[in-house]
Amino acid sequence: MTQAAGITTPADLPKPSIGPILYYWPKAQVREFYRQVAESPAQLVYLGETVCSKRRELSFTDYVETAQMLREAGKQVVLSGLTLLESQTDLRALQQLTQQGEFMVEANDVGTAHYLASQQLPFTGGAALSLYNEHSVLKLWQLGMRRWVVPVEMSRDWLQTLLAQPLLTPIRQQLEIEVFGYGHLPLAWSGRCFTARSENRHKEDCQLCCIKYPAGRLSTSQEGQPLFVLNGIQTQSGARYNLQNDLPSMQGLVHYVRLSPEPEGFFNKLQQFSHGVAAPLQPNEVNGYWHRLAGFCQQTQNIE
Q1: Among 56, 151, 209, 210, which residue has the fewest nearby CB atoms (within 10 Å)?
Q2: CATH fold of 10-184+239-291, please?
Q3: DSSP class of 20
Q4: What is the pLDDT of residues 161-179, one digit of tens each?
């Protein structure tokens, strides 16, 4: 395959993965999305509700059936758990998730990791676990973490230095590394629902208004600049993170680069990541964190 300018051959690059849908979409839209995923080049797919347990367009059975369909299409499937557990209902859903016995689970909460460890089940450690040093990575490895999604603000240099620590040498070749590479960055979670508040509603009476915002609700600064995207109890970056041109810098360091589903243009971007196609960053796209810059910055590269 011909090399794109500044990009090595796709065989040398980290493989694209598809993260869980972070927004609240109607059931028919979700089903159509995963029908296209089944035909896509992605090898690793995450399924599940990670933001708000009130979002129930798809049942647990629906997710399992979708996972089975994707597995039959040749995909490796991981079921993702909630990031913020707030009730006994959430704990019961966690038990159901971890006891299904077919698919690996992505732990986005330390309690989930410990629950999986108690059953001696391997798992993917989500970025929300916030592991920033070799001691915490080793501890989660001992609990059963076999793939680690690094914190979204971690730079390449930080990641490389961390993985080179002697404490991690015995496990380095057995731990898969995944980097969030495309989409609005999940930055924080709260007990409050920001989307509901933006409509002057209480969380308890949200009326599931998130479904009206399939790409979240943009919040701007007084100067009119994108600041945050409100997504229920989750706050995302206002700009879209895009490491499309940084794939060569991940060689030998990163196994998977995660793309976060969006309602428009997603599969075109997935194809570009899969084939290592370089492209200029758009005005609303950033890659600063990967380059040890402020998160809203662009590290520009020459794209011929």
Answers
A1: 56
A2: TIM Barrel (3.20.20)
A3: P
A4: 999 999 999 999 999 999 9
